[in-house]
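Table S2 (continued). Query chain:
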Amino acid sequence: MPRPRRRLASTCVGTVTAGLLATGVALAAPGEDRPEGSTASDTAMGAYLDYGPRGVGRIPYLSRWLGGREIRVGHTYLPGDQWAGIEGRVSFLENWAAWRRADEDRIFVLNVPMQERNEDRVPDRQVARLIRAGARGYYDRHFTRLAERLVSLGVPDTVIVLGWEMNGVTYTHRCGPDPENWKRYWKRVVRAMRSVPGQEFKFDFAPNRGKDAIGWTECYPGDDVVDIVGMDSYDQGPGRDFDDQIVQPYGLQQHVDFAKAHGKPISYPEWGLFRRGDNPEYVRRMLKWIEQQKPLYHTITDYCPHGVWQCKENPRSTKVFRDALRPEVPGPVVPTPVVPTPVFPTPVFPTPVVPTPVVPTPAVPTPVAPTPDVPIPTPQIPTPQVPTPQVPTPEIPRPSPASPSPEVPLPTPTPSPLVPTPVTPSPVTPSPEIPAPVTPSPLVPTPQPTPPKPLPQPQNPPVNNPKQWCVPLNFGEWLSGLVGKQSVCLKLDWSKDSGYWPF
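Corresponding output:
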């Protein structure tokens, strides 16, 4: 966390710019080469809101203030007054660990001091002795205990910002009094924490922007013990404006280039307003720079004088910050004015009714094959020439195949000189050679042949049939000659409903 501090005189900006250009370093201007479709939401963001439970509790309110923007980074500090605090023996770690475990996409960032009495303004000579003691391993156990504490809380992937702002003059864990031993000390701390089973820590090397007391590259401990190259950057000197903050020695551009050369991602664990008060231009440019460089994460320090949400002293910067980080909300839907289309009546022309021709369906008669009347040959007996009345042929029903009529022998006919006997023709089955009927065309009526008029046939005595049995009566020649040939007939009804039907 920044405090008012002594700054060394800055080198001439023109000289630095010329030197950077001579070495081929590209000076990226904010807003240029911006990736298409990139937004501030592409980088995990957060804010330091308080070190303890209140900081955890304020996160959802900050998210709501930003229109629902997800706050993915939780950031706090361990107290550096005693070794117990550095070992993580503080209750608020449990609150932060619970917040982190609630969503696997979150990042927990923990600033860890490297010395107790870390803000007590310890003089350089004493700081040098403490650095040498740390390089010899005197403090390893404190950091092993911290690692065990974090693993037991279920946050083994915590980002450890170890010995932050080591290039300045504020903290007892500063690098300037003995840079070489300071780097050895850093290595011992990292190895002590990595020796704990289950750990997945990421170590963030985060100096102040600018040279400050010593160029921060002189304190870099090596790629094997650094995972992220961070930078704390507030709106203060050296540099008159944001462009100077980019191009100055050990400034924003050199930070990006250094991390790229070492194959490390970058971060901004602390940034915000400071010496120049409410400066919306700085906030706008810093957010554009973050958007362009795509750091692993960034967190603004949100308390006065640095902040924009909890600090009401910077209303213009607050508006810029909020507008830039709120999710894009679609504007109100403006209804398109409806211009009525003139309606012209369509003339209605009567449709002529064309009668549909009705084609009569011709009644196709079922062809009936006439049954020829074949007379039963009878012996030619001369009879008197008496006109024979035409007697209609009675319908003789065909017996059912299941009950054939018994064959009754016919009596020998006896000629009668007085009464003619009608002849009953027997039905004859038509010959199979009869040609099949030809179906007439539906449009041409088929002429019906007129059946020939049957010729009068000599009358035969009654023939027995399934419904009538006749027995001739013989009275002798003399009496039969007087009364004629007579017979007694008995009619029997063999239908199904007669009561005599045997089947």
